[in-house]
């Protein structure tokens, strides 16, 4: 006899997400010669980072993985701690409950449900943008405000939505006549929205967007992603 890879039996599609979480945790963190079904309840955050990165690259089918600043944002999210430094997180352990049991503060979903939504959206609609490093993605709203508030009018970046599963939003800065700046966030686009009109074309449509942060003209950054506009006759 031989142990199979982990299998989860589900009775409805809405259990798919939790089943994937169970299989991922089991595959990544169980010992080779373990007693069946025994798997660690807590794992080092560093191992979790490697697992999320491998999963992201495999699922999206890209060679561009997660960066150090992405891990920092994900650590702040899963541990609900905005005061710790990057090094502080390295020595921590993350639990199964934090990964896929506890609801994120002020949200209606778990960390894994949110991350899986990002995976699905990127795989379906954003693979080429991610691979060209046009999406900052994993960054907090507060940090975006800090970055953009001193930039020229119309500077923007793309981040995954915190409040919705599987959404991407555009944050951009506007300068008022009184010399004050304000950072605005456009309502997140879902996979359904982006199947109707692509992200590149939506960015082209929005006249208030000028330069991709830090300083790349919009057409230079996204030009290769624009679709040729059809004429009325077509």
Automatic annotation (TrEMBL):
SUPFAM superfamilies: p53-like transcription factors, SH2 domain. GO terms for molecular function: DNA binding; DNA-binding transcription factor activity. Keywords: Activator, Cytoplasm, DNA-binding, Nucleus, Phosphoprotein, SH2 domain, Transcription, Transcription regulation. It comes from the Eukaryota. It is found in: Cytoplasm; Nucleus. GO terms for biological process: cell surface receptor signaling pathway. This is STAT6 protein. The gene is Stat6_1.
């Amino acid at each position: 006899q031989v142990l199979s890879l982990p299998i989860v039996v589900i009775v409805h599609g809405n259990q798919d997400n939790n089943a994937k979480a169970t299989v991922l945790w089991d595959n990544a963190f169980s010992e080779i010669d373990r007693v069946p079904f025994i798997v660690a309840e807590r794992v080092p955050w560093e191992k979790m980072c490697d697992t999320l990165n491998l999963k992201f690259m495999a699922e999206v089918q890209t060679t561009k993985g997660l960066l150090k600043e992405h891990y920092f944002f994900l650590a702040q999210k899963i541990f609900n701690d905005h005061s710790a430094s990057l090094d502080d997180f390295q020595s921590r352990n993350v639990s199964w409950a934090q990964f896929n049991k506890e609801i994120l503060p002020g949200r209606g979903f778990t960390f894994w449900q949110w991350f899986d939504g990002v995976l699905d959206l990127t795989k379906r609609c954003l693979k080429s943008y991610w691979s060209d490093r046009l999406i900052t993605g994993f960054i907090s709203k507060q940090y975006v405000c800090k970055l953009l508030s001193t930039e020229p009018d119309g500077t923007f970046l793309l981040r995954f939505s915190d409040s919705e599963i599987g959404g991407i939003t555009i944050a951009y800065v506007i300068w008022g006549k009184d010399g004050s700046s304000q950072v605005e966030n456009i309502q997140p686009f879902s996979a359904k929205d982006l199947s109707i009109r692509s992200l590149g074309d939506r960015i082209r449509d929005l006249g208030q967007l000028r330069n991709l942060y830090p300083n790349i003209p919009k057409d230079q950054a996204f030009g290769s992603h624009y679709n040729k506009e059809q004429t009325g006759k077509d």
